[in-house]
Amino acid sequence: CSAHVAANASSFSSCLASHGVSNFSLPASPSYNTTLNFSIRNLRFTLPDVTRPAAIVLPVSKEDLRRAILCARDSSFAIRVRSGGHSYEGLSYTTENHIRFVVIDLMNLDRVQVDPVSATTWAETGATLGELYYAVGRSSRSLAFSGGSCSTIGLGGVVSGGGFGLLSRRFGLAADNVLDAVLINPNGRVLDRHSMGKDVFWAIRGGGGGSWGVVYAWKLRLVPAPHNVTVFIIDRTGPIEYIAGLVHTWQLVGPNLPDEFYLSLYFPTGSSDGNVSISFEGQVLGTKQHTLSVLSQSFPMLDVSESDLSEMSWVESTAKFANVDKVSDLLNRQPGTNSYTKSKSDYVKAPISRQDMVEIVRYMSARPPGSIILDPYGGAMARIESGTTPFPHRAGILYGIQYTVYWGQSDQAKADEYIRWLRSLYAYMTPHVSKGPRGAYVNYLDLDLGANNWTHPMGGSSMEAVLHARSLWGAAYFGNNFDQLVKAKMTIDPENVFNNAQSIPPLY
Ligand code: FDA
């Protein structure tokens, strides 16, 4: 691994300059801190003990990107690639074991070209979901894209790891809608789906970012949207037993609704007055009347009324769920505020009993501040075979859970306490969630599951490193698809140039 040789910052900057790449920042540059911090979404990775990059390069073209990869390799730096910077464990702008590295930040590669006639788009991977949604919405009211809800997520990371969103029960993940890609391999070669080969094209669509090279652009399938969709956010507050009853019923309803329905559950933790609050967030590819008639029959306890519902264009709905004021705000890469966060994820295969749900809601409603989100699967998610892409959580999954704690600067002293609470909740959930292996979502990266150790890879044997990765996070994120990912890694990056704490290890 090149990081064993002393990395050299001046040879890196002269290499860039001699190839006409001028947009980069070194620690002494006035722009360095602003550029580094611009896309840090988790303040845990701004703390003083976190190793910072020796340089940040901001390519403005595919050729700049290729040069940045080659110069980093020539100067013996590890490479971290950053798109939207939302990695839960900061893997796009940090390294383990103080390995010297540079960040290639794709934020200037954000062009999105929509072709409404073929219902496809080519998007550079530095674009955010918001930029993509905006471009799709401008080109046609009857097209949409199936991605996530947060508009500032980068296409580089979200599509690489899957990309679950409000349309996934109808059209699958973002990764299920990739038609082609431009990948720059560790030797700077530019590959498309044919020249990269079947195994690699399969791996980049859900096998997680940072393992394969740099995806410069995605060709994505757009999906049909009705003139208006129906959206709602319904808040319910009450005693634990009442809320547990709603959540218990939701488990039976949410994953079994018709495909055009998305009904998720958002559970802010940290209520203190004995009552608990939850929100049901919904989007339906259909009218208010259709929404009312289906929900009043399938989920009478929710008691939806027409005044809870609004009709709007699909792109307006993306602004609503991204929590921004207007459609043009989807172009804003900077969210309101950042916080310190830690997240974990789970999958549920069998409904949790009502009695257990009461105890779970009681546990969740205890402090600290954070949120728990239950995402309904079923529909197209269940119909796509679990080996079609590396994302294995398909038929048999009722819903995914994301647990998060977050805090601000003033609560920094309580960080360990909050994270301990999150881990204890995760332990508490063990009997109720998937097992053998306990599943997790690679886009909700969680280093508690384990990490690669490239400096001492389990005594040096690549087989041991692969077994280590498979038994800890590999099986949780990818199930039976993990070995196929190792095979793809050996094809595209046998020297492990693109690595991180949970990247796919090569076997050599
Ligand atoms: P970042 O830039 O941090 O990249 C993540 C990983 O991908 C890193 O390993 C990075 O090196 C690699 N990478 C980035 N660009 C690459 C490229 N061009 N080629 C190769 N590798 C590349 N998920 C979801 O499915 N649905 C959702 O609704 C949400 N919502 C959500 C909200 C919020 C507030 C957060 C913080 C996160 C989510 N997520 C999510 C999770 C999100 O999908 C996940 O964190 C993605 O990896 C983020 O992608 P970014 O490009 O922003 O991150």
TrEMBL record:
It is found in: Secreted, Extracellular space. GO terms for cellular component: extracellular region. Its main location: secreted. It comes from the Eukaryota. One of its GO terms (molecular function) is oxidoreductase activity. Its cofactor is FAD. The keyword Oxidoreductase applies. This is FAD-binding PCMH-type domain-containing protein. It comes from Oryza punctata. The lineage of its organism: Eukaryota, Viridiplantae, Streptophyta, Embryophyta, Tracheophyta.
